[in-house]
Amino acid sequence: xxxxxxxxxxxxxxxxxxxxxxxxxxxxxxxxxxxxxxxxxxxxxxxxxxxxxxxxxxxxxxxxxxxxxxxxxxxxxxxxxxxxxxxxxxxxxxxxxxxxxxxxxxxxxxxxxxxxxxxxxxxxxxxxxxxxxxxxxxxxxxxxxxxxxxxxxxxxxxxxxxxxxxxxxxxxxxxxxxxxxxxxxxxxxxxxxxxxxxxxxxxxxxxxxxxxxxxxxxxxxxxxxxxxxxxxxxxxxxxxxxxxxxxxxxxxxxxxxxxxxxxxxxxxxxxxxxxxxxxxxxxxxxxxxxxxxxxxxxxxxxxxxxxxxxxxxxxxxxxxxxxxxxxxxxxxxxxxxxxxxxxxxxxxxxxxxxxxxxxxxxxxxxxxxxxxxxxxxxxxxxxxxxxxxxxxxxxxxxxxxxxxxxxxxxxxxxxxxxxxxxxxxxxxxxxxxxxxxxxxxxxxxxxxxxxxxxxxxxxxxxxxxxxxxxxxxxxxxxxxxxxxxxxxxxxxxxxxxxxxxxxxxxxxxxxxxxxxxxxxxxxxxxxxxxxxxxxxxxxxxxxxxxxxxxxxxxxxxxxxxxxxxxxxxxxxxxxxxxxxxxxxxxxxxxxxxxxxxxxxxxxxxxxxxxxxxxxxxxxxxxxxxxxxxxxxxxxxxxxxxxxxxxxxxxx
Amino acid sequence: xxxxxxxxxxxxxxxxxxxxxxxxxxxxxxxxxxxxxxxxxxxxxxxxxxxxxxxxxxxxxxxxxxxxxxxxxxxxxxxxxxxxxxxxxxxxxxxxxxxxxxxxxxxxxxxxxxxxxxxxxxxxxxxxxxxxxxxxxxxxxxxxxxxxxxxxxxxxxxxxxxxxxxxxxxxxxxxxxxxxxxxxxxxxxxxxxxxxxxxxxxxxxxxxxxxxxxxxxxxxxxxxxxxxxxxxxxxxxxxxxxxxxxxxxxxxxxxxxxxxxxxxxxxxxxxxxxxxxxxxxxxxxxxxxxxxxxxxxxxxxxxxxxxxxxxxxxxxxxxxxxxxxxxxxxxxxxxxxxxxxxxxxxxxxxxxxxxxxx
Lengths: 651, 358
Fold this sequence. Notes:
The structure holds two protein chains of two kinds.
Chain A: H1 9-33, H2 48-52, H3 54-57, E1 63-66, H4 71-78, H5 81-89, E2 106-107, E3 111-113, H6 120-130, E4 138-143, H7 150-162, E5 166-172, E6 175-176, E7 179-180, H8 181-184, H9 189-195, E8 199-204, H10 208-225, E9 229-234, H11 250-259, H12 261-268, H13 270-290, E10 313-315, H14 324-338, E11 342-346, H15 363-366, E12 371-373, H16 378-390, E13 394-398, H17 409-422, E14 432-437, E15 462-465, H18 472-482, E16 487-492, E17 509-514, E18 521-525, E19 532-535, H19 541-555, E20 559-563, E21 566-568, H20 573-582, E22 584-588, H21 597-607, E23 613-617, H22 628-634, H23 638-650
Parallel strand pairs in A: 1-3, 1-4, 4-5, 5-9, 8-9, 11-12, 11-13, 13-14, 14-16, 15-16, 19-20, 19-22, 22-23
Antiparallel strand pairs in A: 2-3, 6-7, 10-17, 15-21, 17-18, 18-20
Chain B: E1 3-6, E2 16-22, E3 29-30, E4 35-40, E5 45-49, E6 54-58, E7 65-67, E8 71-76, H1 79-84, H2 104-112, H3 117-123, H4 128-157, H5 163-175, E9 179-186, H6 191-198, H7 206-219, E10 225-228, E11 231-234, E12 240-242, E13 244-245, E14 250-251, E15 254-255, H8 263-278, E16 292-296, E17 316-323, E18 328-336, H9 342-356
Parallel strand pairs in B: 12-16, 16-17
Antiparallel strand pairs in B: 1-8, 2-4, 2-7, 3-6, 4-5, 6-8, 9-18, 10-11, 12-15, 13-14, 17-18
């Protein structure tokens, strides 16, 4: 910055805020060195200006999405210095009750940050999509390091497609943690961004008044044009990536220190600078005096075994004799009518193709703003859905094959599942990922798997498995009306064309369900003491229904089959109730052995001191082959279950 | 000698074929190797040859459809012979006779009733219902004849008119049984305290024991019956007799239907019987039909073990003895090995021990 810098009022405001931010960051580093803080911080010392300008350009209703180096952005958006410090101190009075900590901040004024590099890009895009018909925008911050993440590019593609009001500010400080950009970034960012059809602008902080002008103009432009803008801001962080991990050349750092706008300001307008510094210090010190120690009484839930026996068994509804795919479509369609916030996104779901398994059918024709196709970008689809959810929508994200759920795992685990609690438990995240699993169609190893076990046990989520007998329409209807957390619904490919009527049972088997919202099923003969308890779900239910009738007719063995719908969290009580009667538990799974829901069930029963013996039947411990002959050998056949059950009974 | 010419299935799809020509009339003479018929299969026309010489009689019509295993013609030595033979014979069974298999549940229940899979096959039992029917009839077979001749002589036997007939009936009882004994000792048994706790008459533990035995005999039913003519007979009711050494002979008054009495009622009945005995008012009916007997010597004096003889038409008798010096109560069960086993006897006794200690 040259000495003839115009310290106009708007620039001074930005500098004042920047000073406040710097003092806050320095305080945090100081508290760390005094041992009063634990964890880590990623200070933005040297880069405060991007955060500081926010208070000048944002209006009510604008939302900021940021990353691990978010303190400046947070203070710039919310002015909540106190909340930030308390949060890093671990107090329940902190911005997010001490749960999120330095990297995971939220403020109801409109601020979300997360520590997974690049992960928030599609989330910001999805949120911005919900602002399309408003005067508001999303301001999204990333660093140059995040331009290495694939999801970033998937999201840029989406941003270009949907053109939401989003400004992406790339704080290019030339380093990822310890690696210089020259080693990790190839080609140039301008052509990358313009390659997506997005507008690219560039500025830097070294001429701070120009910087202020450039950014102010960018924000104004977005507000009038509503078109996304990508701004790369050259800058430099003066301190380490987090704390003490700084290998950069000391000369280089010093060079930038000389150029740093605050330092220049300190030199050039010392008096004003001192005012700002004193005011900031005073504010922080007087606050710290009142908070020499912290408390935190946020409840930590330890109990994970749900053994709720407050239900009772009731009759199932009269079945409609419709196919499963019809029932799912109807439930979604009817709820789309009733709830304007319900949306559905996915690949190839638009009319007339109507989805790979014909679930979405004509929904996009009937609800064009709310049901639409996405590019083949599962991770970004998931992130976009997360953003829609944060923005007040209830998105149903169709993931075409269950095998592709691997692609969304980060958005599921580190975004959807974490948002509610890490942001201080101030709102719910209703989002549904629905996907078909299951093989026996010869689709081969990557299009046939049942991989629910990898999604079970993630706190604050739920995993539901529908089957032709648990009235998928009612399950979906209930779910869509009452959803309060990220939910995976697992469907089954072979089940889509099955009808919901059970086979007529000569032995008198009937289904009953628990009187709960999302109910579990029991298939048994009334007033007959069962000999064996069987547990299965999803694609196996219809097969086992047939098998059980066969078993009873030929061997007079009475089976009680429990089919959970809510796989996680699982209410173990229906299984407990049955196993207490039979003391024999047969679990049949369409999945490779090890670490499955079946294993979990056995472990839970054992911990409850239930006496029983058990057999767990799984598929072969290998990938699913494509050849029909091999596929048959891979899966558990009805005959195998029959023989196993008979032997088990005779024990 | 009769030879049958049978159509054997030619090819996979030729279970059913058409007879397109018959080359001989009935009663014609044929030589071995002659073509006697032609059948049309899916691939070609097949010639059927005579496998022996003699007179032929066709068993099928021209242009008819026949199945694999059908007889095409028979060849015999004379007209009478071939006339006498039934031509429409039983077809060759190409598929195995499908046996209805025994259900797993029936197998399991059979096992616990000491019946093997072979037993079930012989009895043609495949289901639980059939098995239960069999078990029930097995038992009721036994109990039905109980009411006929036996109780007539039985009632007479239970009231010996003198010592001699008492001895005779006891001898008879032993000779029809295989008596064994099994004993247990209950330590730290203080009759005084026990008597006080249960409000006993003359320190006589019969009412308590009878009540316990009555329950247990419903479980160990082999101890509440008798063996006769190679069959086990099980009583439905539990009538417990107790031995009283009267002047002339052994009296065994019986508390009838213990299984229906509560402990109070049982005790009262016992006292009534005791009173009747003392006052010389014992009747035959009061001593009739014991199904199980308890013999207690403790009224006489201290004793280690007491192994009584089986009463007629019973399969077990419980001898009790108390040694006050060592505070021991011994329970000895004499049982008929044809009805029961050492294991059962011991389990029975141990159940009594458990219930006494409550």
